[in-house]
Amino acid sequence: MLVTNGGYGGLHHAMRHGVPIVIAGDSEDKVETSARVQYARVGVNLRTGRPTPDAIRSAVRRILDDPSYAANARRIGDAIAVASGAPGLVDDIERMLAVRA
């Protein structure tokens, strides 16, 4: 399990490896990444940048008690593992441009 402020790099790394997340971030892009963690049910969004120890403890317990968070994190990790990444994006753009030409 990762307890984080919601930086994109750490989130991506955790999800790539199927690790559920407790997220507490409210600056920069962290509101958006927190919402995505919650929506995908890969973790618990604490909806603040300054969570209390009790809130963190409760979120950790929730994830440990509910195996669906780990299952969802593994599902997304599996999808990331087979994704073609930046090279695949380049290939897609080149195909689109070839169709337009």
UniProtKB/TrEMBL annotation:
<keyword id="KW-0328">Glycosyltransferase</keyword>
<protein>
    <recommendedName>
        <fullName>Erythromycin biosynthesis protein CIII-like C-terminal domain-containing protein</fullName>
    </recommendedName>
</protein>
<dbReference type="InterPro" id="IPR010610">
    <property type="entry name" value="EryCIII-like_C"/>
</dbReference>
<dbReference type="GO" id="GO:0016757">
    <property type="term" value="F:glycosyltransferase activity"/>
</dbReference>
<keyword id="KW-0808">Transferase</keyword>
<feature type="domain" description="Erythromycin biosynthesis protein CIII-like C-terminal">
    <location>
        <begin position="3"/>
        <end position="82"/>
    </location>
</feature>
<dbReference type="InterPro" id="IPR050271">
    <property type="entry name" value="UDP-glycosyltransferase"/>
</dbReference>
<dbReference type="Pfam" id="PF06722">
    <property type="entry name" value="EryCIII-like_C"/>
</dbReference>
